[in-house]
Amino acid sequence: VIHICTGTYDESVDLTGKTGDITLEGAGGVTIWSSSGNAIFFDTAPYEGSITLRNLAATSDLSTAVNFTLGINGNLIISGNTTHAGIVANVGAVTLNGTQSGGMTNTSTFATFAGSGTNNGFSDIAGNLLPGGTNAIGTLTLNGLALQFGAVVGFELNSTTNIGGGVNDLIVVNGNLTVSGNTIAINPVGL
Description:
Blueprint: E1 2-4, E2 7-10, E3 13-14, E4 22-26, E5 30-34, E6 40-47, E7 50-54, E8 57-60, E9 66-70, E10 75-79, E11 81-96, E12 99-115, E13 118-119, E14 123-125, E15 128-131, E16 139-142, E17 145-147, E18 152-158, E19 170-173, E20 177-178, E21 183-189
Parallel strand pairs: 1-4, 2-5, 3-6, 4-7, 5-8, 6-9, 7-10, 9-11, 10-11, 11-12, 12-13, 12-14, 12-15, 13-16, 14-17, 15-18, 16-19, 17-20, 18-21
């Protein structure tokens, strides 16, 4: 775990060369800012571990403040209250279990966006969208959603007809919704 003290840091966090699971955790009021590149990045071969961002603000003069090259088994986990300009995920998984201010862009059919959190930015999904996660029930709240052609939405649904509430998966879209003839995969739970 890398703890970052309160304050504003005019530099990037370069995780290049790090291995294993990494947690970047802010101690309240932490801003990582970069005028010359991504605020938080991992810029080498695809990363196969888990990277957790918790209670951080990442800003940059670039349109994307957080940039990771995840491997097929890599997982970027966002928890707590995290602010950034957006995340690009080409492969691997992004798990949102907190509140995120910033857009989510999923640019590949090999990437998964999952979790039980809130994205206050726009979500543009070309891969898998799984509220809760694989074999996990949850509610994912988005401030607008575009499902690109080929995107798959997966739901775990129980025989109980409750809407969300930890019984059935739910996606709440509080903005524009665009669908493109997408596949909806249903995993019946408890049947």
